[in-house]
Write a structure and sequence with these properties.
This protein has 19 helices and 15 strands. The strands form four sheets. It has a six-stranded mixed beta sheet with strand order 3-4-14-9-10-13, sandwiched between helices. A five-stranded parallel beta sheet has the order 8-5-6-7-15, with helices on both faces. A two-stranded antiparallel ribbon has the order 1-2. 56% of the residues are buried. α11 (258-268) links the parallel β9 (248-253) and β10 (273-280). The longest helix is centred in the first third of the chain and has 19 residues, at 112-130. The chain has helices at residues 15-21, 40-45, 51-63, 69-80, 112-130, 144-152, 171-178, 194-206, 208-214, 224-240, 258-268, 285-292, 316-323, 328-341, 348-355, 365-379, 385-396, 416-423, 450-462; strands spanning 3-5, 30-32, 91-95, 98-102, 134-139, 158-165, 185-191, 216-217, 248-253, 273-280, 294-296, 343-345, 358-362, 404-408, 444-447. The chain is of the alpha/beta class. The protein is globular, with a radius of gyration of 20 Å. It has a domain at 91-106 and 224-423: Rossmann fold (3-Layer(aba) Sandwich). Helices cover 45% and strands 16% of the residues.
Length: 463
């Protein structure tokens, strides 16, 4: 299987090169030339399989023989053995017809672990035999950085630089990055927003001199392997609720759109779905887009769900590419215009195609607080603010058919101050990471200047 850039100015590559490259050289995002298919009969059979086996099948469909099936199965079993729940992504029922998929049982207590743990093993598997060293540069709105550091710390062939917006993530999120003592990890507090961090990463990938000098790679959801790995839990949760015979709806708290786009990928692979509801906080670029057809960047507002404080969702480019029937020239034009003006009018035909599956709802801070309190009082479940945004959003949607699964993207203990302020209960860190708050931190502070950060990355990679 070959992978093409959404902007059409880069040569097609295989799965391994798409994984190790991250972002395409023309600034576009890789997508497979065709979507692999899984039959309804095989999907139904997932109900009897361990999570790691389903992961090996789904990810293997995209690797398409470039990685031996036995090796991929072994990597998946190793990756998901790091999770504290044997189901990896268990379901909890909140009320009749409403479930949460607990995506937070991995090492950094967030859904990013589901993809990052397998991605680290893919890098080991691919880089080791080549005696090749890479530098991973990632931007995080809170959880990606912690998951990347947990997955790649101490690994021989990779150095990691994690950029995070200073003062705009929770202390626990920050500490999952900054308490790593391994010399292959560097963390940078950037004086700006997540969008600033993400823009700097994209500029770094377009700097061919830097890219070649440090063998740059990315593990944000610009990396298609992340999307492939996240598609797995759409299959497992849907099958647990009766798929493929019964359609399931999903509600996804979303900022960068990678998690929701992974649902789209599962759907394109053959998983029947009723709807994907994209839930946002007041940083509502995606909710507005799916309701109006206009993708317009606004000012980033700090909220109690900081991983969603984003006004430029990089994975939307992949959906736009599909919506305009894979017209790469049009996609490149649209996103060049977005970079200049901060707005795209989605063509009517593409918007109609998006609306076949997607809807959007924005949730206020007050409603987020009320949902945390109500969920605790009515079910005994303590949920984090991002999950609360999604639970609130699904309650306001009117066209979700079948069982509804809310993607619970983080453990409430990652946001103890926000949860305690909302409901008076302070969530405790799980036993395995209970000492996190007492570990020494190590990070640097830099301005939101691309050239400054590129120089930092080069010095760290070469040092």
């Amino acid at each position: 299987m070959r992978y093409v850039s959404t902007r059409g100015q880069a040569p097609s590559v295989g799965f391994i090169d798409a994984v190790l490259g991250g972002l395409a050289p023309d600034g576009g995002l890789y997508v497979p030339e065709t979507w692999p298919q899984i039959s309804a009969q095989e999907i139904a059979g997932f109900a009897d399989k361990p999570y790691a086996e389903v992961a090996a099948r789904v990810i293997g469909a995209f690797a398409d023989g470039e990685i031996a099936a036995a090796d991929l199965r072994e990597m998946c079993h190793e990756a998901y053995a790091t999770f504290t729940h044997t189901a990896v992504v268990p379901l909890t029922q909140l009320q009749p017809g409403l479930f949460i998929a607990e995506l937070f049982h991995g090492p950094s207590l967030a859904f990013k672990d589901v993809a990052m743990q397998i991605l680290a093993r893919l890098y080991d598997h691919l880089l080791g035999p080549q005696k090749r060293n890479q530098t991973i540069l990632c931007a995080t709105s809170g959880d990606t950085g912690g998951a990347a550091v947990e997955a790649f710390r101490g690994r021989r062939n990779v150095k990691v630089v994690a950029l995070f917006p200073e003062g705009r993530i929770s202390e626990v999120q920050r500490r999952f990055m900054t308490t790593a003592a391994e010399s292959n990890v560097a963390c940078v507090a950037v004086k700006g927003s997540f969008d600033d961090c993400q823009a700097i990463v994209k500029l770094a990938f377009q700097d061919q001199s830097l890219r070649q000098a440090v063998d740059l790679s990315g593990v944000n959801s610009i990396n298609f392997a992340r999307i492939a790995a996240q598609a797995v839990y759409y299959f497992t949760t849907a099958v647990a609720l009766g798929a493929p015979e019964r359609k399931v709806s999903f509600c996804v708290p979303s900022g960068n759109f990678g998690d929701a786009f992974a649902g789209y990928v599962a759907h394109r692979m053959g998983l029947p779905m009723s709807r994907i509801l994209v839930a946002t906080n007041s940083n509502d670029i995606l909710a507005r887009t799916f309701e109006t057809g206009r993708y317009t960047r606004g000012k980033v507002h700090p909220t109690m769900s900081p991983a969603m404080d984003i006004q430029s969702a990089s994975n939307f480019e992949r959906l736009y590419f599909e919506g305009v029937q894979r017209e790469a020239t049009e996609t490149a034009r649209a996103f060049a215009a977005f970079a200049d003006t901060g707005a795209i009018d989605v063509p009517p035909q593409a918007f109609a195609a998006m609306r076949e599956l997607f809807r959007g709802v924005s949730v206020s801070e007050a409603d987020t607080v009320r949902t945390i309190v109500a969920t605790l009082n009515e079910t005994g479940e303590l949920i984090d603010p991002h999950t609360a945004v999604a639970v609130s959003a699904q309650g306001r949607a009117h066209d979700l058919e079948g069982p509804v699964v809310v993607m619970s993207t983080a453990h409430p203990a990652k946001f103890p101050e926000a949860v305690a302020k909302a409901c008076g209960v302070t969530p405790e860190l799980p036993r395995g990471v209970a000492d996190l708050v007492s570990r020494p931190e190590r990070f640097d502070r830099l301005p939101a200047e691309a050239e400054t950060i590129k120089a930092y990355v080069r010095a760290f990679a070469e040092g």
